[in-house]
Amino acid sequence: MRSFSKEEKSWMWYDWGHSAYSIIISTAVFPLFYKAAAEDAGVSAANSTAYLGYAIAISTFILALLGPILGTIADYKGFKKTFFAGFSLLGIVATALLTFIPNDSWELLLVCYMFIAIGSAGSNVFYDAFLVDVTDDERMNKVSARGFAIGYIGSTIPFIISIAIILLAGQEVLPISITAASQIAFFITALWWGVFTLPMLRNVRQKHYLNREPRIVANSFKRLYETLKQIKQHRAIFLFLLAYFFYIDGVGTIITMSTAYGTDLGIESTDLLIILFVTQVVAAPFAMLYGRLADRFSGKIMLYVGICVYIIVCIYAYFMKSAFDFWVLAMLVATSQGGIQALSRAYFARMVPKVNANRFFGFYNIFDKFASILGPLLVGVTAQLTGHTSMGVFSLVILFIVGIVILIRVPEPGKGQAVGFSGGNSDKTSGLN
User: Fold this and answer.
1) Could you tell me the domains of the chain?
2) Where in the numbering of this chain does the Major facilitator superfamily (MFS) profile domain appear (predicted)?
3) What is the pLDDT of residues 13-60, one digit of tens each?
């Protein structure tokens, strides 16, 4: 078995660093910090969860509009890494700024969170597109899944440090407030994210690109229009994006709002943090398992498995009443959340022409991000109308069902050939460095 190359490892290191954001900011510490701040300001639990959902929806809407445009420009030589670095820096700096925002400014916390979310998701557009530059079609399932697995493992280190500081806060060994401890956790996240972005910036290069030409922006909009026509013409890519839109909506909503949901159910913050930590540990081997099983059976079969697990999660969440139920739910999510995301990324990367990967991943991003608007909005509105977040979670079942029905109609991409493309594409000025 061929060992991982320097480029593949450097690409994976970004997941190791960035995943600290995913658990500490997106899932664990920040939601608890924000919920406590909102509660102290007199905001009800249902409303604070709804406002968090709206903040997620707004930030993802902004990036959904930017993704295809910047992705098209990034097909030109040198732009992919520039955009990746810019969005990464935005997310890292905004995360560091959380350290200085007082906990009584819950509105400002949400605004800063939106900038972090834009930086994180924006960097991931180009990070995902770099998959075609660091490996080949035959290794995409393995490399993509290993990236997610390493991310889960890497995120546990700053998470353990942060939780230890929070749990020890207010005691003799660490005479600081829980607020200060949470802010230290935010700084640790920014530092971890920043340090492990460096290997990606140093060692990964854009191998597939278009040579630069005059009027890059104007030509990019022209090529963007051509891409829209191509997506309509090439049924396989369009169907996959449509299926992805529905099932990833449910996945993203469950991940980003799980902590807020657990809080609304009355689960103690300490229990939530422990559950989330164990979820990260369990998710790592399952992500790698999905990659191996995808090579043995197929990526599509394993996507079916992951979607079915999430349908069970949504149904179980509706009846959840205790911390034990949340444990069961979290372990179910852990078995599939990394696998379904990793295999979706690899599946799409094998479908699109490599020289236009950024352009097509821009559309992959827009389907991802617009999906991330619908789910949180659905949960938020339902929570406010019914006073019960569980109704919104249960309603996500229909998204997974629609997604799997459409996915059935998507053909498995052939090795070494982009589905729906024969002999190339409309862009002739490509090159390799």
Assistant:
1) 6-414 (1.20.1250.20)
2) 236-433
3) 999 999 888 878 877 788 888 888 888 888 887 788 788 878 887 887
